[in-house]
Amino acid sequence: MAELVYDKTGRLLFTKEMKEEYTILFPTMLPVHFGLMARIIENLGYKVEMLTTNHRGIVDEGLKYVHNDTCYPALLVIGQLIDAVKSGRYDPHKVALLITQTGGGCRASNYIHLLRKALEKAGLSYVPVISLNLSGLEANPGFKLGLNTLRKAVFAMMYGDIIVQTANQVRPYEVTPGETDQTIRRLEDHLLEEMEHGRGLSFKSMVAHFDHITAALRAVPTAGEPKVRVGVVGEIYIKYSPLGNNNLEQFLLSEGAEPVVPGLTDFIIFKIYNREVDVGIYGGRWIKKKACQILKGYVEKCQRAMIAAMERSGFRAPGTFEDLRRLIQGYLGEGNKMGEGWLLTAEMLELIHSGTPNIVCTQPFGCLPNHIVGKGMIRKLKDDYPNSNIVAIDYDPGATKINQENRIKLMLANARGLTGRQPEASAELESAGVAAVD
Asked: Are 346 and 327 in contact (CB under 8 A)?
């Protein structure tokens, strides 16, 4: 067994010896994106497993070891990790836990401290915790991702976005149930093989892979009339994680709706742009602002290529980050950037403008930033866009799934009762005057 090594602060380190013996567990948020990332890390010689468990026991473990005033995503993430360690599927002396750490002002920077505190309470303080961050917050000698791996991670996030956004337009109409998901698995295998052999790591190859992805999903046989489209926005974990939102996308599909979920790319650009905004508002070194502008410009270039590929293949494409910035003018300032900040409101505006006025705004109960830029903006959006049909759904340990689903069903009934089916243009929606659900 690898010897336990601590740094001068008493933090247990993940060492090079552990790389050979330990299985690294990490929670999932975006199944496709994180699944690609897990396999990229596996190719570096690590044993990695993305947790997809989803049961009430996870919430109970979180409540047992995390204060119940802590936000629901933290409770779920920590509960899922501890549940896995205690499940009997792994040797608890041969597992490590991986968790992201942003360095921002919101809860995501506190997860790692809360997790270590929870492990200590559970008698599992010998389990090392690895911080995955780009802020230099913590280092672990046995876990290092080089620039080439980080580059693959960026590409994986872009590929994940175009897969999810095109698949969501195919899955509700597929002739053979499950064929969309089978196609996604084949695409993942192809993309990972390409990146592993160095063939998928240039902008030119990215564009080619975008076309390959859209062609593969366009080839899935579909049938049926257009369904009611329902946008999903909110706090990033609850918005994307099936564990966090009680399998919201699957529920919408079961109700005969087409889920429309904004991609991760805008959030990545938003976080980069915030560093640029900081310099403008609070001052700082021009070199930092310039570096952020260069990085933001590259990611935006990739985003434009993704949008173009979707349009070429006949898929409905999202707008650019600059489109979101234009939409938010007059609603929220760019200094409003805690958590999802102004981006959340901008995503709702984009959905309304693109013919998806039916929106589920997902939020952890008591999440202050989200209640301001999400639930707090619904009345203003309703006043400006009478066609908007938005329901805010709170998620926390005491919220019942049946109550959440009933409120979403009411929103769907509201949409179907007035439009019959989802119109293709926002002009039609304006004339329909769909009422919002408070």
From this structure: yes
